[in-house]
Write a structure and sequence with these properties.
The chain has about 400 residues and is of the alpha/beta class. It folds into 2 domains: about 90 residues, Urease, subunit C, domain 1, CATH 2.30.40; about 300 residues, Metal-dependent hydrolases (TIM Barrel), CATH 3.20.20.140. It is about 25% helix and about 30% strand. It contains 10 helices and 26 strands. The strands form 5 sheets. Strands 1, 2, 3, 4, 5, 23, 24, 25 and 26 form a 9-stranded mixed β-sheet that branches. Strands 6, 9, 10, 11, 12, 13, 14, 17 and 18 form a 9-stranded parallel β-sheet that branches. Strand 21 and strand 22 form a beta hairpin. The protein is globular and about 70 Å long.
Length: about 400
């Protein structure tokens, strides 16, 4: 039996922060959480040096990182992105594909299966998120318009017949055929999510009744209050706030949303219904300069500057270059959110939205030992996946095996 004890840490549980606490891990699962040291014999001991010990971060919307996109066409690219994400505290990801061709999707499905089998040093793969191609042309953002279409049953069924790995599919529910699409994917155990949409409040209510229970990157590429003749109509943004049944996700990179909107989303929806996402492209964890959103072969050229990716004419943001640790830091420092709530938005809330809360998202006995250790500014010191360190400052003075 493999045993690890993490001790001398501030452990963030669902209910409190345990000062000077310890976690006993056996065979990749959390066996015990307690105050003080367990002092278990024959265990690898990790001294957390009074840093915070948190559930591993879960990014349910990311296109890539570290110079790689999940659509690049190789399993190695998927693994490269997941390794960079682990460096920033992410223990689980949902690889996301923007609107693309059927052929590239088939390649993605094959690479995903291969990468999932080989993935021992990066963030775990929870399933695939398809972002598109069923979007409003008006709200397409940086999505490639040549792929944007209305949903047709024979087309999305053909895609779903090729894989069982899709767990979420984002679409605009006001499109012809989108309500049937929502019902169908829901029946397959897939989460339909409202995205790149010009829907009104009444259309969002219909979407909710037909399976859409989540809103992709709140505020971005979606309708707000509109005016027709003399009358005003609520859009997706207002609907997300009014309908308690809807969960949302926000890109808290400091560019896509200003602090006031981060505060508003948190104040109205609360940490249990707001997930933090990177929506990152290949430039996450890299420096400024030219890059590509989407696959190297068919993607769109972008410019990374001011901490965000933009189309070359600088008219639209094109994904983010954020990392998960930055999101938590921004919610604490920019939005004034308590640390425990910011962590919840990056851990148990996305786990629940994606259907993995029974296994992940909290430091609770019996769950996967996916853990991240960080300091007061959310600088990552160690990332542990199923009880095994995949990255740490072990050779420095911060985290020491004993």
């Amino acid at each position: 039996m493999e045993r690890t004890e993490i001790y001398n840490g501030k452990i963030i549980t669902p209910y409190r922060i345990i000062e000077k606490g310890s976690i006993l891990i056996e065979d990749g699962k959390i066996k015990q959480v307690r105050e003080g040291n367990a002092e278990v014999k024959n265990a690898v001991r990790i001294n957390a040096h009074n840093f915070y010990v948190s559930p591993g971060f879960i990014d349910i919307h990311t296109h890539g990182a570290g110079g790689y996109d999940y659509l690049d066409g190789t399993a190695e690219a998927m693994l490269g992105a997941s390794r960079m994400q682990a460096v920033h505290g992410v223990t689980s990801v949902v690889p996301t594909a923007s609107a693309t061709s059927y052929e590239e999707l088939l390649t993605l499905f094959d690479n995903y299966r291969e990468a999932k089998q080989k993935n021992i040093t990066g963030a775990q793969f929870l399933g695939i998120h398809l972002e598109g191609p069923y979007f409003s042309m008006k709200r397409k953002g940086a999505q490639d318009q040549k792929y944007i279409i209305n949903p047709k049953r024979e087309e999305y069924k053909k895609i779903l017949d090729q894989t069982d790995d899709i767990i979420r599919w984002s679409a605009a529910p006001e499109l012809d055929g989108a309500l049937e699409f929502g019902r169908y994917v829901s029946s397959r155990g897939i989460l339909p999510s409202i995205a790149h949409s010009d829907a009104t409040y009444d259309e969002v209510v219909l979407a909710l009744e037909n399976g859409y229970t989540h809103v992709t990157h709140l505020y971005n590429a979606m309708s707000g209050i509109t005016r027709k003749n003399c009358y005003r109509y609520g859009g997706v943004i207002e609907s997300a706030f009014l309908l308690d049944q809807l969960t949302v996700e926000i890109i808290a990179d400091g560019s896509h949303l200003p602090p006031c909107l981060l505060k508003l989303a948190y104040k109205i929806k609360g940490p249990s219904r707001v997930a933090l996402i990177t929506d990152s492209m290949r430039g996450a964890g890299m420096g400024p300069g030219e890059s590509i959103v989407g696959s190297l072969k068919h993607g769109l050229k972008v410019i990374i500057e001011d901490g965000v990716a933009k189309l070359p004419d600088r008219s639209v943001f094109a994904s983010s270059v954020a990392t998960a640790d930055l999101l938590v830091r921004n919610m604490v420092e920019m939005a004034g959110v308590p640390l425990a709530d910011a962590v919840q938005m990056m851990t148990s809330t996305p786990a629940g939205i994606s259907g993995f809360l029974q296994q992940k998202g909290t430091i609770t006995e019996g769950k996967d030992a996916d853990i991240v250790i960080f300091d007061e500014r959310i600088n990552i010191k160690a990332t542990i996946i199923k009880g095994r360190e995949v990255w740490s400052t072990i050779n420095g003075s911060d985290i020491n095996r004993q």
